Amino acid sequence: MAFTRSAKLTIGIMAMMGILITYVETMVTPALPILVRDFHTNYDRLSWVITAYILSGTVSAAIFGRLADIYGKKKIFIILAGVYTVAVAFGGFATNLPQFILVRAVQGIGMGMFPVAYALLNDEVPRENLALAQGIISSTFTGGAAIGLVLGAYITQYYGWEWSYHSAIPVALALMIAAIVVVKESPIRRQEKIDFAGVFALSLSVIFLILGLSEGQYWGWESLAVAASFSMSVVSLAAFILIERAVEMPFIDLKLLKIRNILLANLAGLFAMTGMFFLFYTVPVLLQDPSPSGFGMPIFNSGLVMLPAAIASMIFAPLSARITNRRGPKVTILIGGVVLFLSYLALLFNRQTTISILEDTTLLGISLSFVFVGVINILLISTPAKDAGVSTGMNVVFRNIGSAIAPAIGGVLESTYVMPVLLGVYNYPVGGLPFFPIFGTFPSGAAYDYIYIIGLVFLAIMVVLTLFMKNEILGKRKGESFE
Predict the structure, then answer these.
(1) Could you read off the pLDDT of 372-384 as tens digits, one per residue?
(2) Tally of CB atoms within 10 A around 468
(3) What is the dihedral angle through the alpha carbons of 199, 69, 13, 118, rounded to the nearest 10 degrees?
(4) Angle in degrees, 0-180, between the axes of helices 97-109 and 48-71, rounded to the nearest 10
(5) Do residues 331 and 323 lie in contact, with contact meaning Cβ atoms separated by under 8 Å?
(6) Which of 1, 45, 337, 466 holds its CA 20 to 30 A away from the CA of 369?
(7) CA distance linking residue 270 with residue 398, whole number of Å
């Protein structure tokens, strides 16, 4: 059965919104050195530009996925799109670091549109075509991110980082209007009250967890601040569990995480996102740093090396959807996990040239297409329809935790294993030399080796967890699933 016209338009709007969100998230990365200069700050304080986005996005995904189930998916999606459009409009007008961090925090709320979009597709798209629709949306994670690295780098290099935001304003506004006109409201509702105490406790736990992960490289992993962050996360999580067991209508039904496929799919999403962000936070650095630490490429050129990964991810989305329909999402996740593991082996042993890095990252882009399609598909198969929003919201929370783990670990290793690089000389004699050498410290090859080895361990765990999933195929009668 082909997609209806309404379904095609809905998928198109959701995909474009996904690309826009991930584009805005990653377009800041190439501009970080310029932001240090413009805001008269340092990398320690500037880290909040990334951290604020991750924190608010994680909380937003957890909260608004649930609210969509209660008040209507289209209604919540439009509200989030409106808030996001306003935040994007103000992004390029920030004049100092606190203003910019505030804008980024509000932008992070837009990440709540991802679980709502998946839930809308679950109601709108025929079951036999759902995997393909999910694959199209899932491909925006890598597609939008790579576009952000390339286009964001180009705009920043030639026009200034402010225009990265200015250029996104009409796109955000047009997509919000299109969603209002085209998207149909889902008739599925949950008639219940909001568990505000549970929302607060879970949000606090996630905030302290990602805060510790994101800031550990700056505060020091053995510091009191990091220990306090992780301790508060555990205490808040314990409080959340107690609250959810006590209230009549809990914010998140903990029984969902007792379902094998839901728990394992969330963990798989976490490890896959860790692998993706290890790539985004190491390869651009490796390509841009001066030789012999890196390849000394311009910002824009380094972004171009990442572009084939995004293209490959989008090209292979239909194939991964077809395999999911025929063989089940477990098979799709396994294929993606194994290919992702192989891409990290390639990054470990085959990164001597820019062409080899392009090959490695392209392989990684292919793998992520399979993983994300399979994860979302198995989640929605295993989750009751009334809980679709909260289940996909939880998945975004797990993915964001993975996206915070990667830069935290990578930052520590890139700061620990460094090498001196000659940047230039002053024509001034010193110590018997006819000139004064100027050195800088940059990550060494050992730093990247350790990062990719850790990535291999994470991905091996992901493959093992996937083996324990129960394989189910949409359209099969109950009892006809594949083990």
Answers:
(1) 888 888 887 888 7
(2) 11
(3) 80
(4) 30
(5) yes
(6) 1
(7) 5
User: How do residues 134-185 score in pLDDT, each as one tens digit?
Assistant: 667 766 766 677 778 778 888 888 888 899 889 889 999 998 999 898 888 8
Q: Is the pTM of this model over 0.85?
A: no
At the top level of CATH, the class of 5-194+251-467 is mainly alpha
**pLDDT digits over 387-397, tens only?**
766 677 677 77
Question: In angstroms, rounded to a whole number, what is the distance separating the alpha carbons of residues 251 and 199?
Answer: 6
| Contacts (Cβ under 8 Å, ≥6 apart) of 96 | 39
Compute the distance between CA of residue 395 and CA of residue 262 in angstroms, rounded to an integer: 9
**φ, ψ (nearest 5 deg) of residue 253:** -75, 110
- The answer to whether 144 touches 20, Cβ cutoff 8 Å, is yes
Exposure string for 126-145, b = 16+ CB within 10 A, e = fewer: eeebbbbbbbbbbbbbbbbb
Task: Give the pair of three-digit tokens for residue 164.
Answer: 């990265």
Give me 185's structure tokens.
């409201």
- Find out whether 394 and 256 touch, Cβ atoms under 8 Å: yes
State the Cα–Cα distance between residues 364 and 313, nearest whole angstrom.
Answer: 8
Per-residue H/E/C for the chain:
CCCCHHHHHHHHHHHHHHHHHHHHHHCCHHHHHHHHHHCCCCHHHHCHHHHHHHHHHHHHHHHHHHHHHHHCHHHHHHHHHHHHHHHHHHHCCCCCHHHHHHHHHHHHHHHHHHHHHHHHHHHHCCHHHHHHHHHHHHHHHHHHHHHHHHHHHHHHHHCCCHHHHHCCHHHHHHHHHHHHHHCCCCCCCCCCCCCHHHHHHHHHHHHHHHHHHHHHHHHCCCCHHHHHHHHHHHHHHHHHHHHHHHCCCCCCCHHHHHCHHHHHHHHHHHHHHHHHHHHHHHHHHHHHCCCCCCCCCCHHHHHHHHHHHHHHHHHHHHHHHHHHHHHCHHHHHHHHHHHHHHHHHHHHHCCCCHHHHHHHHHHHHHHHHHHHHHHHHHHHHHCCHHHHHHHHHHHHHHHHHHHHHHHHHHHHHHHHCEEEEEEEEECCCECCECCEEEEEEEECHHHHHHHHHHHHHHHHHHHHHHHCCCECCCCCCCCCCEC
State the residue for tokens 């999580």: 237
CA 402 – CA 225 distance, rounded (Å): 21
Q: How far apart are CA 213 and CA 65, in angstroms?
A: 24
Largest Cα separation within the chain, whole Å, is 84
The answer to whether 373 and 320 have CB atoms below 8 angstroms apart is yes
**Could you read off the pLDDT of 434-452 as tens digits, one per residue?**
666 666 677 888 889 999 9
